[in-house]
Structure formats: C-alpha cells, structure tokens
From TrEMBL:
Name listed for the protein in its UniProt record: RNA 3'-terminal phosphate cyclase domain-containing protein
The species this protein was found in: Pristionchus entomophagus
Domain RNA 3'-terminal phosphate cyclase stretches: 19-220
GO CC, alphabetical: nucleolus
SUPFAM superfamilies: EPT/RTPC-like
Amino acid sequence: KVLGRLENNAASSLRGVAFRGLQLLLFRVVYSLLSGRPILIDKIRPDDDSPGLKEHETLLLKLLNNISNGTQTEINRTGTRLRFTAGMLLGGEASLNCGLTRCISLYLEALLLLSPFCKKPLRVKLEGITNAPREISVEAILTTLLPVYTKFVLNDEDLDIKIVNRGLLPEGDGKLIFSTPIVKKLRPVQREKVGNVRKVRGTAWVTKTGIGVCAHRLVDGAKQVLRGYLTDVYITVDQRKGAHGGK
C-alpha cells in the first residue's frame, strides 16, 4: 500500500497541477519553478476579442526561461492553453525589454521571489516603463519589498535595485539593474506585533523639467497632509534630465 501511494504521488507530481483561467499567473509559474511541479493552464481569455496570453505575460515566461535551465513553455496556436514545465533555477546575468504594456515592477516582483533560490548571483537588466498609473512603481518595491527581503537573508551586501533611466508612458525607455547575491541559507522570521507608523519616507520624482516647478510642490503638498498625523516626514527629490529621463 505504501509503495502504491508513493507511485501515485510521483505520477501526480509528473502530471502537475491544472488550472483554469489566468488569475495569479505570476505566482503560479513562480511556485512551479520553486516546487519543480509542472502546471497546465487552460481557457485563457477564450471569449475575449483577442483571446490568449498578452504580450507582458509571454515576456514574463521568457524572463523565467532566461534565469533557469531546462524550463519548457508550450503554448497552443490561439494562446488559450499553456503548459509550463519547470527547470532548474540558475540565476546569472540576463536582460529583457519589458515592452510598453506593463510596468517593470511586474517582472521585478517575480525576480525577487525567485532570487534567494538561484545557484548564481542574479544580475538582470530590465528596460521599459518604471512608473505607470494604477501599477506598483519601482520605488514601492524598493522601499517596501526589499526591507522584507533582507529580514530573510543573511547576506544582503550585493542586493540592489538601481534605476538608470526613468521611463514613462507612452514611449518608456526606462532602465534598471536588479542584482542579488547568493543566498546559502534563509533565516526564519516571526512577527507578533503589527506596530505603529512612526515615520514616512518618500520620493518626489520629475523628468525633463525643473525641480522647482513640480517636485517641491509635490513635497510640500504631501507634507501638509501627512504632518497632520505625524511629524517625522522626509521626502527626497529625484530629477532626471536628458536620456536618464526616458522618452
């Protein structure tokens, strides 16, 4: 009986997990890589005017192929069916033009989840849009996810997100470099108290315009609102000119 159960478990592991629809695609492919289990996703936007995977979703799959070895991605002709077979996470150097449909932060989130388990230090150059309406900005990941990341890793010496160019809609041309060290061991973290908000840090950024025109007005406006709740508010100004301001 025990042998039969082991054989059934092994067979189900090889078959993988089946999903319907495209909810949580990023987490499904990331967890597939981490667990080594293949996944099958069916009925991907079957009733849309343009059914199947979108450009940013295929680019995400391409990025995961670039940092792994042996990963196989099979998409049918209409793009409504995806089979993702995980390979081995390697890391190393990679680059990707993320297009203009989604913000770079989408790809950055996947890399952050996978980077502690790569065999080589990760250094990825991403090009596209760094800041877009109704999407998580690169600064948000830099100031919120990285501090959480460092609580789990012992070595954060080479951990960095460097914004080289800032790119906005509609033409983008933003560039950033994401690098992480080798993580040999993850430490457990236990948080029992939520705590209080005691300080606020922020960035007011402008591209191809004077600092006094917009940035300081942004800083003053934010401080007027926030200082009604707490006094420790500090906002820096990031001004980008020329090519560093994108297109």
